[in-house]
Design a protein that fits this description.
mainly alpha
């Protein structure tokens, strides 16, 4: 449960960073705030990459089990192959 909570918090931080970048992009047009936009987008990209790697590692180690359509399709194809 801790892992899932950590993933949700990471998503919230990523969305907040995206909102911050949008705010600086729309409200302020000077070069100083342009740097703030770039910094906020850089943080968002870095967090997204780290979250993606963390989720892949969590699935590979068994800490998180996928339960979506792809997981059901894999289970069906694995059980039908002898």
């Amino acid at each position: 449960m801790f892992i899932k909570s950590l993933i949700i918090v990471a998503f919230i931080i990523i969305i907040t960073s995206l909102g911050t970048a949008l705010f600086h992009l729309v409200k302020h047009k000077d070069p100083e705030n342009s740097q703030k936009t770039v910094k906020a987008l850089t943080v968002r990209i870095a967090l997204s990459v780290v979250l993606f790697i963390f989720v892949i590692i969590s699935i590979a180690t068994g800490l998180v089990t996928p339960t979506g359509i792809g997981a059901r399709m894999q289970a069906t194809s694995a059980s039908s192959n002898p």
